[in-house]
Amino acid sequence: MGEWCKWQESIRPKMDETIGAVIVSPQVITTVVRQVAEATQGVARLSASLSGRMGRVLYGSRSASGVAVQVEDGAVTIDVYVVAMPSTPLLALGQILQHEIHRAIADVVGMPLRAVNIHFTDVQDPLEHSAQ
Asked: Are 49 and 63 in contact (CB under 8 A)?
């Protein structure tokens, strides 16, 4: 097993060598963020954007997925639009989402984060929740 480790070390590129580019699509980041947010207790769902021109005017590049990703100078800014479950403490939920999304992007994607912004767009109607 020692020989294997030595061989592996010998083929690993040194930090100052350039061997090409690794490109992560914003869609990959969006998928990771959606998975984390939807698995977080207290999140009813992610908010779909307003359609067409009004959505662009009010929310800029906000996507229909409830997640907007902007990559600038290799760092990521993420905006997440959340509908919370009734009786959920929003500040605590927002902080949990920020922490979990930050951890997931760092672990899975490996890109530096500039910001994770959580926008609560609504709280799910308790009657709507009980009917489901």
From this structure: yes
Question: Using CB atoms within 10 A of its CB, is residue 98 exposed (0-12), middle (13-18) or buried (19+)?
Answer: middle
CB 66 within 8 A of CB 81: yes
Asked if pLDDT for residue 121 goes beyond 90, the answer is yes
pLDDT of residue 129: 56
Domains of the chain by range and CATH? 24-131 (3.30.70.1350)
Distance CA 77, CA 69 (A): 6
Q: Do residues 44 and 85 touch, judged by C-beta distance below 8 A?
A: yes
Q: Is the distance from CB of 97 to CB of 43 less than 8 angstroms?
A: yes
Q: What is the mean pLDDT of residues 8-32?
A: 76
